[in-house]
Amino acid sequence: MKTLSEYLDLAAQTHGHLCAGQVLGVRLAMLGLRELGIDDPIEERKRIVTYVEIDRCVTDAVALVANCRLGKRALKFRDWGKVAATFVDLKTGRAVRIAAKESSKQAAREKFPELEKEVGQQKAYAALSDDILFDKQWVKVIVPPEDLPGFKGPRVICVQCGEGINFKREVVVDGRTLCRACAGERYYQLLD
Ligand SMILES: [Zn+2]
Ligand SMILES: [Zn+2]
């Protein structure tokens, strides 16, 4: 694993700026990997699947450190609005969920009161102990085969819109094979 400051440099590059969220995310992911005993997330990339529970600054940093990307199917998004992530070790089946403590923000604000808010928070998230910042839970995550990176399966066609569906995401309604949009889960509306 790289050092905190090496990760922060990388995070600033990938994310576009250094911010308190990057520092917190780097710390969160480093803790998760350390708990799983994964020392080199680049070398061991096929071993890790990460579930993130928010799409904010912190997410980019978690994905960077855990070396999990959406396009590699190793990053899963559960939109729960929580600063938390679960790291699954596919080799051992162990998984650990790390969540930022509700009190961590306040703790960070109080650590360097003389500094400007954002700068103080960044420094504090780098300095405070894991115990102050995070809660840790050992959990079990069942990752279905079709969710695993590298899954190969049949591609089916939605009988309504004709678009192809991968990874068993189709649903059968009244005997008709539909994509989730046609089955009613559409997040967009068609304009005429
Ligand atoms: Zn940011
Ligand atoms: Zn469809």
Q: What order do the helices and strands follow?
A: HHEHEEEHHHEEEEEH
Number of helices: 7
Structural class: alpha+beta
Q: Roughly how many Å is the radius of gyration? A: 20 Å
Unreliable runs: none
Shape descriptor: elongated
| Mean of pLDDT | 96
Largest sheet: 5 strands, mixed
Termini separation: 52 Å
Residue share in helix: 25-40%
Strand order of the largest sheet: 2-1-3-4-5
Number of strands: 9
The proportion of strand residues reads 15-25%
> Which ligands appear in the coordinates?
zinc ion
Tell me briefly what this model is:
The chain contains seven helices and nine strands, in the order ααβαβββαααβββββα. The model has no long low-confidence stretch (mean pLDDT 96). With 192 residues, it is an alpha+beta fold.
Indicate the topology.
Layout: H1 4-15, H2 20-36, E1 48-52, H3 57-66, E2 75-77, E3 84-89, E4 95-100, H4 104-111, H5 117-127, H6 130-133, E5 134-139, E6 156-157, E7 164-165, E8 171-173, E9 176-178, H7 181-185
Parallel strand pairs: 1-2
Antiparallel strand pairs: 1-3, 3-4, 4-5, 6-7, 8-9
Helix pairs in contact: 1-2, 1-3, 2-3, 2-5, 4-5
The structure holds zinc ion (2 copies).
Features:
192 residues; alpha+beta; five-stranded mixed β-sheet; two-stranded antiparallel sheet; 7 helices; 9 strands; 19% strand; binds zinc ion
Structural overview:
The chain is of the alpha+beta class and 192 residues long. It has helices at residues 4-15, 20-36, 57-66, 104-111, 117-127, 130-133, 181-185, and strands at 48-52, 75-77, 84-89, 95-100, 134-139, 156-157, 164-165, 171-173, 176-178. Strands 2-1-3-4-5 form a five-stranded mixed beta sheet. Strands 6-7 form a two-stranded antiparallel ribbon. Strand 1, helix 3 and strand 2 form a beta-alpha-beta unit. The model has no long low-confidence stretch (mean pLDDT 96). Bound molecules: zinc ion (2 copies). The site of one zinc ion has 6 residues, from helix 2.
